[in-house]
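Structure ticket #2291
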Amino acid sequence: MTRFTDHAGRPVIAITGAGVVSSLGAGKEENWAKLTSGQSGIHTIRRFATEHLRTTIAGTVDFMTPAEAGSGALTYALAEAAALEAIREAGFAIDDFGGPMFLAAPPVELEWWQRLKLDEDGRKAGGTAPGYDRLLLAARAGAHPDFFGSTRFGDVAAKLQTRIGARGLPITLSTACASGATAIQLGAEAIRRGEAERVISVGTDGSVTAEALVRFSLLSALSTQNDAPEKASKPFSKDRDGFVMAEGAGAFVMESLESATARGATILGILEGCGECADDFHRTRSKPDGSPAIAAVRAALADAGAGTDGVDYVNAHGTSTPENDKMEYLSLSTVFGEDMASIPISSNKSMIGHTLTAAGAIEAVFSLLTIRTGTLPPTINHLNPDPAIALDVVPNVKREADVRRVLSNSFGFGGQNTCLVIAAQPA
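Resolution: structure written out below.
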């Protein structure tokens, strides 16, 4: 068997399967066609009442309706759809994948309809104490085991492991908006350490709820441009006013190039490098000098053995918040210098919104498709450029280009920054 190693003598990481679901649709074909044509999946929320909410728009996945209620069920359904597409493309058995799984999932808790049901049960049981004590009384009765299951952080991974036949204890992680990229990083590291020949990494999030909207609104993080939902997300524009919550999932099947070549798999691309750096400045704001984001970009390039002159395109974190877009520009212009003005960069979030826990994985899939198709997806709604952000954002219309290497950025609330370098298979 031919041995393939990278610049550091580690196994080369081949991507052999990819799957994606977003508000644009299910599967790579539908998503890519709509994304590159500049279509938006952001719309007025119809799933729940939005009266008295400041933000009434989102990129919800309304075409998937799990039999079970709640955001946990949708989060699982999205993960399953993306994972199955990736596994099928890689050529493995759907119910016997045989490698470990790394899954990024959103934090979980009882939803309001569950809390109200437990409170009602507590009243019926004779509870007269304050509401929280009635909730505890009803919870202790164990009348709703499904409520307990839906609030276990590892529940989605446990179900998906059974569905696809992953081996070992599945890893569930949450590093805010960097989670999906972190799941890919952990999978790549497992192969590099020789712990697995193949892995599946998934990022999923179906958690758009009224309460989530309220919480992000209290942080002044969400766009309130409700009248034209498809125009609300406008990364790097002067009139950007916040991100748009969204749902979706992305998945990669990765293998050592040695293993993939031996079994005759189609190599879709190479995961060359991963870089991360935590920001200790603030729970939501970035450090003013951008040093953690700068360090993450540099670490990813160093891990890939690539110089700044080897990056053909940047898939931006690009949330459309005033703070984040400014800090991303600061980090990129610091690392790439004057060359950054000539490197195209675009934000998928202008069309699908911010899929939070899933964002890094979904955008990694789109980065791979950029390499494979030679098409740069646009940053739509870019009609009022911010003069303080001098970037080629592929404004409004897709562009054809020869792309051999992509930097995909994920900068999360709470200070977790993760960057991935994805490349074409060497000739």
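Closing remark: The chain has a mean pLDDT of 92.
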